[in-house]
Amino acid sequence: MLQVAGGSRVAQFLFGVGQVFLLVADKLRVCDAPGCGRFFVAVRPQQKRCSARCTNRVNAAKFREKHGDDGVAERRSKSYARRRARQLGRKSVKVSRRPGVGGRKKKAPGNT
Ligand SMILES: [Zn+2]
Fold it and tell me: Which residues have their alpha-adjacent CB atom under 5 A from ion ligand 1?
């Protein structure tokens, strides 16, 4: 780092901040997750989101868009059935489904 001859401590501090900013300027990005918009320093070249949380949120929304809400409930049910079968040492178990449990509830038609 360059030393600033003379100048106040505040000026030196701001100069340091400026130097740090120049180091990360090309990696400073805005998170593209809906409803976030935070600034972050990209660690990877392709990084578009500030955190794993934002990435998961975007990926979950994409999955729901593709498979619908039933896709989530179906996967959870199958995963539970596999886990139960493993616990009981059986090849498969029959799992009954309760309506409205697992995944998000569908919006009633006509409601906004
Ligand atoms: Zn974010």
Answer: 31, 33, 36, 38, 50, 54
